[in-house]
Sequence to fold (133 residues):
Amino acid sequence: MLEYILFDEQSLNRFLAWLEQHAIPCEQRRDEMGLLVAIPDDLDDETTAAVETCYETLLADSEELLTEAGHGPEKHAAALTIRLGDGRTVQAPVPPALLNKVLSAISVHELNQLIEAIVDSIENPDDRPFCQR
Fold:
């Protein structure tokens, strides 16, 4: 699942409406960081890119509204949400500038594939030389 975090109800409702309009199934939940929406990670690249564009637009609109209302972010923070093999979800803090740099080069879907490969390698180590796998 690809997870997207939103910080206000208006953005959440707009994102959910957009996903519904495009017949993209999703799950939602709240956690201590915000409002999470998860979509399948097996969508085609075009659909995933459209979701990312919608999400980025909503984040920009949300930040602009908060700033105009005098409630802009006082601290910039970013985290990667990682689903472990046992079903637990953890968040790894990442410097926002680094995450922005990564996401300027690869998509959220590609980043999730990279994270899943790392998690799988940690949870299921294979001691054979790489060329023998």
Observations:
- DSSP finds four helices and five strands in the chain.
- Residues 2-132 form one domain.
- The longest strand covers residues 34-39.
- The chain has one domain: 2-132.
